[in-house]
UniProtKB/TrEMBL annotation:
<protein>
    <submittedName>
        <fullName>Uncharacterized protein</fullName>
    </submittedName>
</protein>
<dbReference type="InterPro" id="IPR011993">
    <property type="entry name" value="PH-like_dom_sf"/>
</dbReference>
<dbReference type="Pfam" id="PF21989">
    <property type="entry name" value="RA_2"/>
</dbReference>
<dbReference type="InterPro" id="IPR029071">
    <property type="entry name" value="Ubiquitin-like_domsf"/>
</dbReference>
<dbReference type="InterPro" id="IPR039664">
    <property type="entry name" value="GRB/APBB1IP"/>
</dbReference>
Length: 178
């Protein structure tokens, strides 16, 4: 399987052959060895799901061919690199039903994303802010009885918080626990 991997933006990319056993860390190390990216530990490989407007950090141990294999056919999805990974906790808005949002407290502990209800729960018909991101299943959407369970949308209060959360998810073994 040969694919393009974008580096920080859509203008710069490299073409790479992906085998069934090649992990995200293998690809990161390949690009570090070729001096395409720096030796910094903060580089992350993302899958870009254009249909949903999502970027998901691929964990170091994930097989990239499996990630690509779970993409829906004939969609314009891609792989790309970004830089930086901070630790995270704090309030986010969770879409609990279509267009219904609740403010929850989220944190990452022991490689898992947790959330609990906040004392002041607010239900809204539209996203409370424009800083929306999502947790997407690694399975195909066809595996879900309810397609709304394929992706869980979250909303941060500020752009910086959203970026911190998205990049911190790289280090977590993302199991969504209520």
């Amino acid at each position: 399987l040969t694919t393009q991997i974008f580096i920080e933006n859509l203008r710069q990319y490299r073409t790479l052959s992906i085998t069934a056993t090649r992990t995200a860390l293998d690809i990161l190390n390949y690009f570090r060895d070729n001096e395409t990216i720096s030796d910094s530990e903060s580089w992350t490989l993302f899958e870009v799901i254009n249909e949903y407007g999502l970027e998901r950090p691929i964990r170091d141990w994930e097989y990239v061919a499996t990630v690509i294999g779970n993409w829906e056919p004939n969609k314009q999805n891609a792989l790309g690199f970004k830089n930086a990974v901070p630790p995270m906790f704090g309030s986010l808005h969770l879409e609990v039903k279509k267009n219904k949002w609740q403010k929850r407290h989220f944190f990452i502990r022991d490689g898992t994303v947790y959330h609990c209800k906040d004392a002041k729960v607010k239900i809204k018909l539209k996203s409370p802010t424009k800083f929306i991101f999502a947790l997407k299943s690694q399975d195909k959407v066809a595996m879900f009885e309810n397609p709304d369970d394929y992706i869980r949308y979250l909303c941060a209060d500020h752009l910086d918080k959203m970026k911190d959360w998205v990049l911190s998810l790289r280090a977590a073994k993302v199991i969504f626990i209520k």
